[in-house]
Amino acid sequence: MAYEALYTRVRPKTLAQLIGQEHIMTALTRAICKNRLSHAYLLVGTRGTGKTSTARLLAKAMNCDKVFEAQKSNQPLLATEIPCGKCPSCLSIDSSPDNVEFDAASNRSVEDVQRLLSTASLAPLQSRIKTFIIDEVHMLSFEAVNSILKLIEEPPPHVAFFLATTEFNKVPQTIRSRCQILNFHLIPNGLVTPYLQKLSKSLGIELSRDAAKRIGRLAAGSMRDAVTYFDQCYAMADKTISLEDVEKTLGLISDADLDEIISAVQSQNRTSLSAALSRAFRSGLSSISIAEALISRLRDIEFGLIKKRDDSELVQLENLAAEVRKIIVEMQYSGVPDIILEMALMKIAAPKVTVQQNFSSQEVPAQIETLDDVKKIFRELRAQLPESEKNMRAMLQSASVANFAGNVLTLNFTSPAMASMFNDARQSQFEEIFSKLIGHKIKVMKVVGANVGTDYENIDERGKQNAQTAMNFFQTDNFSKTNEDNF
Ligand SMILES: [Zn+2]
User: Quick one: how far is CA 303 from the chain centroid?
Assistant: First the structure.
């Protein structure tokens, strides 16, 4: 006997059973009760969020005898009663010739569409309303779209269209403007988890909460994916499904293994990192899947930290997630993604060489006699900044030394944005290093676009005077304040 996928068996039977789409359930129930359904709907949302199920429910409801009677007698209906599922129409609609459903991805030409919609102008054979459900409508060719526009705009009174799409931006404006749009949301894990547990209970099997949460996380908002993943685990399970069962059946790397990788990177323990990565590679997952799982785990931990308002660790994790995202792009174009992942994580976990460490060994303070000496030190400092300080280097590359007088070093930035990014914390760090280099304490004054040119190596007397004028003009306090306001 052919196995019927669990997802098709548990499709919603009434509007009330649509999960995570209360806004749509409420709007449609009201429209049906008031007999104000549109003749054309565009159902928009990620795969597995209930678009096709809703279109089928609407097609059924439009023909349901009970709904029809209620509309005639002005009786209110509950979402649990739409459609009734028991009347002759509800029982026969799935095999009715008046109910046409097709996928535009495989029927995208104008000939396909004309053939499939050829009966639209004819009266229904059995039903009250003829319904056409077109999946992935954005895949229709330009000519096919044009051929159905007129039909959608002014359909015969006995016809309704339900167009579903996962890519709203690719649906031509001409179609969008002729349909009522229903936006389907991603289904939060808070709804997926209890649904899966309830479903497993109805099948006589115990699904642990951790296991259900893990499946929900993997499905990322798609109920169809969640039920399909659960179906795979259910097929292999005995009486219970634990988190471990889910990870084994679906070939997932465990949270504990991911946490070990993250913790090893954070504590810069490359020995532990190497061991954790070896274990992950032994799980048989591709290195890209491991990196993606790492991002997903980092996101979960970040959410936890946001709730706890722990900003310092949050920034650290965000930086790590950004690095892993970059690694994934690199891995996609490499023949040896395993090595790329390992080397990149090892590099991130390498002990950081801070700017202070780099320069603290300089025992003899630099001799300063002219402005050129100051510029030379500035250039050397910038050139010697380690890779870990590339942000600081980028900022200093957009700055030049405009003047040095009274222990105040004037830096001229090429743009307000760069000057703003060189914030108080960075400025203090820079002042500390520079003070060490020249042997006494200095303060930095920021100016922007002063007329000294960016070619600081050729600054002349006139340039110095200009810088002085600019310095007088841009009062540092005012400048900083304005900058904070602007950026
Ligand atoms: Zn019915």
Answer: 14
